[in-house]
Amino acid sequence: MTPGRAPTLTRRAALLALAAAGCASGVHAAGRTLPPSTALPQEIAQALAQGQPLVVMVSLRACPFCEVVRNNYLAPMHEREGLPVVQINMLDDRPTTDPTGHATTHGALVRAWGVKVAPTLLFLGKGGAEIAPRLAGGETDFYAATLDSRLEQARKHVGS
Asked: What is the pTM of this model?
């Protein structure tokens, strides 16, 4: 650091600082929510009927990057544009059904998908096929552009 010059933060450090400040101030508890998955076959069918992929956010409780992705990207897109999105919690035993209609839990589904990082976004099409590359993590400087690109790719696949 140069004397007399304020230190600069990387975008990742800034996001962590904002998330931590939100947690400390109680804002964290007032964050936006996404609907939890309860039946993937129906959720996928509803998304496809709208000409959209189903976006699945795999998250972890108390994950600052999950909060950023949910509050700043997915929830606003869900609210404003009707983006079909559901949330799966990594360590949750909440029941759901997998894309083939078999009963499972959120945690078991995450393990079956091999997801290791929160947040991870999956873009699902017919039969639960992943129709765009996963978006894992939340620290990239180009998150919005990467998300837009993956959504565009998934939408083209749905439309074909």
From this structure: 0.80
Q: CA nearest 55: which of 47, 67, 63?
A: 47
Q: Quote the CA–CA distance of 53 and 134 in Å, as a whole number.
A: 13
Rounded CA separation 49/34 (Å)? 20
Beta-carbon count within 10 A of 49 CB: 9
Per-residue pLDDT of 90-103, as tens digits, reads: 999 999 999 999 99
Across-strand partners of 36?
87
Which is it for the CA torsion 153, 39, 85, 137, positive or negative?
A: negative
Measured distance CA(29)–CA(68) in Å, rounded: 13
User: In the structure encoding, which two tokens stand for residue 102, read together?
Assistant: 């078999």
- E strand or H helix at 131: strand 130-136
